C-alpha cells in the first residue's frame, strides 16, 4: 500500500451554512495500481483527489503516504511527498503560464526540485520525456501554450508531471474536455505509461466507461459518500448499488 485515506470528511461554508462535501471516505491505493473514482458533478471526487494529493486539508480524517500522516510531514519528507504525488488536471492550458515557452514550463519544476542539474541535463530530461509522451521536442520546446491543441497540451502536462518521477499520478477529469479520438489517445498514453513506468494512479472522471478502460479498481461516489468499491469488471458487470447500476446503464446503453 502506497497511499491510504481514513475517514476523510470535508466541510465548506456556503452562505453561512455548512455543506459536507465528503463524509468519512476511506480507501487505499496499492503500488502500480490504477484506482478509478467515478461520480456525477458534486459527488466530492475532485475534492477527495485534492485532499489526498495535499492541495486541500480535510476537516477531519487522515491521509497516509508510505505509512506517514501527510499533515505531519516536515522538511525533506514534505518535499519528497510533493514530488512523489503529481496532478494532471482537466484544462492543461489553465495550468501553464501563457507567456512562457514550453521549455521554460517544463524546466521550472526540475530547477526547483533538482538544483544541481545542469542546463544540458534539464534539456535532455525534458526532451526525452516529450518523446515518451508522443511530442517532438524540436517542434514543441520553443513555442508557447497557445500554439498547441488541447490534446497536445494534455500530453505536455503529463510530461511535466512525470518529469519529477512521481510514484502517484492524480488525473482529475484529464480527458473530459477532449473529443472522443483525442480522449482515446490520452487514455492509451496513460495505459502505456502505467506499464512502462509503473506509476500508481488515481483516475477521476464522471464517465464510468472511461474509468473502466484504465482502472484496476473502481470507487463509486455520490453526495460525498462511497457507494461501492471493487474490481473494475465486477463493478461494471455486477453492480451492487442502484446508483452504480444507473451509471453503468447510462454509459453502455
From TrEMBL:
* Ranges of residues in domain ABC transporter: 3-248
Could you list the residue ranges that cross the membrane? none
Q: Which GO terms describe its biological process?
A: transmembrane transport
Family annotation (SMART domains): AAA
Keywords from UniProt, A to Z, are: ATP-binding, Nucleotide-binding, Transport
Q: Name one GO molecular function term.
A: ATP binding
What is stated as this protein's family in its record?
Belongs to the ABC transporter superfamily.
- Record-given protein name: ABC transporter ATP-binding protein
Q: Which organism is it from?
A: Bullifex porci
Amino acid at each position: 500500500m502506497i497511499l491510504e485515506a481514513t475517514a476523510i470528511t470535508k466541510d465548506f461554508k456556503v452562505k453561512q451554512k455548512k455543506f459536507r462535501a465528503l463524509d468519512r471516505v476511506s480507501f487505499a491505493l496499492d503500488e502500480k495500481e490504477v484506482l478509478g473514482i467515478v461520480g456525477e458533478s458534486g459527488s466530492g471526487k475532485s475534492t477527495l483527489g485534492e485532499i489526498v494529493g495535499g492541495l486541500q486539508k480535510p476537516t477531519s480524517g487522515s491521509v497516509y503516504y508510505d505509512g506517514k500522516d501527510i499533515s505531519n510531514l516536515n522538511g525533506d519528507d514534505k518535499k519528497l511527498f510533493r514530488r512523489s504525488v503529481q496532478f494532471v488536471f482537466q484544462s492543461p492550458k489553465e495550468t501553464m503560464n501563457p507567456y512562457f515557452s514550453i521549455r521554460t514550463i517544463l524546466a521550472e519544476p526540475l530547477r526547483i526540485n533538482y538544483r544541481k542539474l545542469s542546463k544540458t541535463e534539464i534539456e535532455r530530461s525534458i526532451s526525452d520525456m516529450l518523446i515518451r509522451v508522443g511530442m517532438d521536442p524540436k517542434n514543441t520546446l520553443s513555442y508557447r501554450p497557445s500554439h498547441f491543441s488541447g490534446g497536445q497540451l494534455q500530453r505536455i502536462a503529463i510530461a511535466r508531471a512525470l518529469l519529477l518521477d512521481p510514484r502517484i499520478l492524480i488525473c482529475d477529469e484529464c480527458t473530459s474536455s477532449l473529443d472522443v479520438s483525442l480522449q482515446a489517445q490520452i487514455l492509451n498514453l496513460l495505459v502505456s505509461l502505467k506499464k512502462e513506468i509503473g506509476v500508481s494512479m488515481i483516475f477521476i472522471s464522471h464517465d464510468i466507461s472511461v474509468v473502466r478502460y484504465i482502472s484496476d479498481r473502481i470507487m463509486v461516489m455520490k453526495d460525498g459518500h462511497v457507494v461501492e468499491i471493487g474490481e473494475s469488471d465486477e463493478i461494471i458487470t455486477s453492480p451492487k448499488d442502484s446508483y452504480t447500476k444507473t451509471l453503468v446503464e447510462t454509459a453502455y446503453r
